[in-house]
């Protein structure tokens, strides 16, 4: 667990942080998927939104995600310092003091929510606020250091963007964005645990109860397979509920089929050497492509059959 | 603080001020565009 977040680390610099470190604090690479799923939710929503307001809505989703990431790094600076993958982040590397990260994260949170409310509607702004609070308090502070199921429940934070994007257009929460929420929610465990299998040593060093560390690799492989089965059902739900058409249906069928094959391969293997975890890496990389493809198909489907 | 460190601090402050200025200018344009859309009845 992190020590007091109000303490300034010994490595903290008296030098003002470079502006690039504030950008790094927002985890721009993670933001790509958030922006894409939010944009797809917005484009697939029934209704019309002015392009300027659509741009503002996506900007707010991106800023909200950046704010949540900043607050996550503010709280986890001590943990990040113990992992090779995160040790060079601005706070553990001593390029920024903790208070700057806190002020930046809180300021960005308020700004993104208020701008969303003023530019689109307050339902979208409220869901954005809930997603930031969920990520910071439920995931980062509460679940992540306490349970090996942290990824499952915490994954909901990453599933909000399509709901926010859709609400920005319609002013309500429809069945399709909820279905996309469920897809992203059940996609997160196999996606993240595939990564956790081959970076296990990092989480052990930081004492984070990641599933492979707490329950072992065999249990993790079983859980990946279990959540892949639920994710497959969630992926086909929009077709079965007639919320989408043929383009999404075929993409989901083929994409999910391949996902199931890759996940089964990971499930039946017993490899423990991270350097020989080719199928695990393949599942992780493919899972990203899979989510992009399915969300893209929702939009194309809507535009073709609308 | 050594003269080198002071020089680096000034340089960072300058680049941060420049980026902040550019962001503020971008926000002025964005808020202007949002206002025009809202006044024009766009939603």
Structural summary, described in words:
The complex is a heterodimer of chains A (306) and B (43). Chain A has two domains: 22-172, UbiA prenyltransferase (Tetracycline Repressor, domain 2, Orthogonal Bundle), CATH 1.10.357; 174-306, Four Helix Bundle (Hemerythrin (Met), subunit A) (Up-down Bundle). Helices cover 74% and strands 0% of the residues of chain A. Chain A has helices spanning 19-25, 28-44, 51-75, 77-81, 98-119, 122-143, 150-154, 156-159, 161-170, 175-198, 200-206, 211-214, 217-240, 246-268, 278-305. The radius of gyration of chain A is 20 Å and the shape is flat. In chain A, 49% of the residues are buried. Mean pLDDT of chain A is 90; it is low at 1-12. Chain B is mostly helical. Chain B is 86% helix and 0% strand. Chain B contains one helix and no strands. Chain B is rod-shaped. At the A-B interface, helix 3 of A face helix 1 of B.
Summarize the structure.
By secondary structure, chain A is mainly α. Helices cover 74% and strands 0% of the residues of chain A. In chain A, helix 2 packs parallel to helix 9 and helix 6 packs antiparallel against helix 9.
Protein traits:
A: 306 residues, mainly alpha, Four Helix Bundle (Hemerythrin (Met), subunit A), 15 helices, disordered N terminus, B: 43 residues, 1 helix, 86% helix, 0% strand
């Amino acid at each position: 667990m992190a020590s007091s977040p109000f303490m300034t680390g010994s490595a903290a610099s008296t030098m003002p942080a470079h502006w690039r470190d504030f950008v790094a604090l927002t985890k721009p690479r993670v933001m790509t998927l958030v922006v894409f799923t939010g944009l797809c939710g917005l484009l697939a929503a029934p209704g019309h939104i002015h392009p300027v307001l659509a741009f503002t809505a996506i900007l707010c989703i991106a800023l909200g995600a950046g704010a949540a990431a900043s607050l996550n790094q503010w709280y986890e600076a001590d943990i990040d310092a113990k992992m090779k993958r995160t040790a060079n982040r601005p706070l553990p590397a001593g390029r920024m003091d903790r208070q700057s990260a806190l002020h930046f994260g809180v300021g960005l949170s308020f700004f993104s929510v208020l701008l969303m409310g003023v530019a689109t509607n307050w339902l979208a702004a409220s869901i954005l606020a809930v997603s930031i609070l969920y990520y910071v308090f439920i995931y980062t502070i509460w679940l992540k250091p306490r349970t090996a199921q942290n990824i499952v429940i915490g994954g909901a934070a990453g599933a909000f963007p399509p709901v926010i994007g859709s609400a920005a257009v319609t002013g309500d929460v429809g069945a399709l964005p909820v279905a996309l929420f469920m897809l992203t929610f059940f996609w997160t465990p196999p996606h993240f645990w595939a990564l956790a299998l081959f970076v296990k040593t990092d989480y052990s060093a930081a004492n984070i109860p990641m599933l492979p560390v707490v329950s072992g690799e065999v249990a993790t492989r079983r859980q990946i397979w279990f959540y892949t089965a639920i994710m497959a059902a969630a992926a086909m739900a929009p077709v079965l509920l007639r919320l989408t058409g043929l383009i999404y249906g075929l993409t989901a069928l083929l994409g999910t089929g391949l996902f199931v094959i890759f996940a089964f391969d990971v499930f039946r293997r017993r490899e423990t050497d991270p350097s020989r975890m080719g199928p695990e890496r393949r599942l992780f990389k493919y899972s990203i492509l899979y989510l992009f493809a399915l969300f893209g198909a929702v939009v194309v489907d809507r535009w073709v059959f609308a | 603080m050594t003269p080198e460190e002071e020089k680096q601090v000034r340089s960072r402050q300058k680049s941060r001020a420049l980026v902040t200025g550019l962001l503020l200018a971008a926000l002025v344009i964005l808020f202007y565009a949002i206002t025009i859309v809202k006044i024009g009845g766009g939603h």
